[in-house]
Design a protein that fits this description.
single chain; alpha/beta; 6 helices; globular
Length: 188
């Protein structure tokens, strides 16, 4: 059993920031789906990883069941783009916990993806209402079509692109682009 849990850790490491299918995990591990879910939950309890649930709200054609997993120790992630996304996820989760601890409303972290494979890595909801869409890139500029699409579908929800390689605030194809260092500096 221990070797299967080690295999699960390797699978989560390889798929950090991607949608994780428990059915695929079940097949890869050779166990039933309840065991795969239980083992993943145990890794969450041990603070190895955390789950970011999908958000669908009233949006049509959005995926509602597939979570994403991120690591608390993002240094384990090899790819620079995925590592920066994981680091952003940790910072946003910390902000959610801060707001809850200080009684500032229920701030929750989600991801959003539809059946046409448009996705935004992070959506913050305040008291279950969309509050902020956040995209990430390790470079100076990145993909903004999905950010603009979901921002328009949700009404007046602000969207921002957190860019690790950017030096100053600016605009990236109609979306507010923020340097990673500045973004992390202002989060509580």
């Amino acid at each position: 059993m221990l070797s299967s849990v080690e295999h699960l850790v390797a699978l989560i490491l390889a798929q950090t920031g991607s949608i994780l299918s428990f059915n695929k995990l079940r097949r890869d591990l050779g166990v039933n789906i309840a065991s795969a879910r239980l083992w993943a939950a145990r890794l969450e309890h041990l603070h190895f990883c955390f789950r970011v649930a999908p958000f669908a709200g009233r949006l049509e054609r959005c995926l509602r069941l597939a979570p994403k997993f991120y690591l608390y120790d993002w240094s384990e992630v090899d790819d620079a783009e995925r590592r920066f996304e994981n680091m952003t996820a940790c910072a946003l989760l910390r902000w959610c916990h801060f707001c809850e601890d200080w009684g500032q409303g229920k701030l929750e972290l989600h991801h959003i993806r539809d059946k046409e494979k448009r996705s935004v890595p992070f959506l913050l909801t305040l008291n279950r209402k969309p509050f902020l869409l956040v995209g990430t890139t390790a470079g100076e500029a990145g993909e903004t079509r999905s950010l603009k699409y979901f921002a328009a579908r949700m009404g007046k929800v602000p969207a921002m692109l957190v860019a690790a390689g950017r030096k100053q605030l600016g605009d990236c194809d109609g979306v507010r682009a923020v340097p990673g260092a500045a973004f992390f500096a202002v989060l509580p």
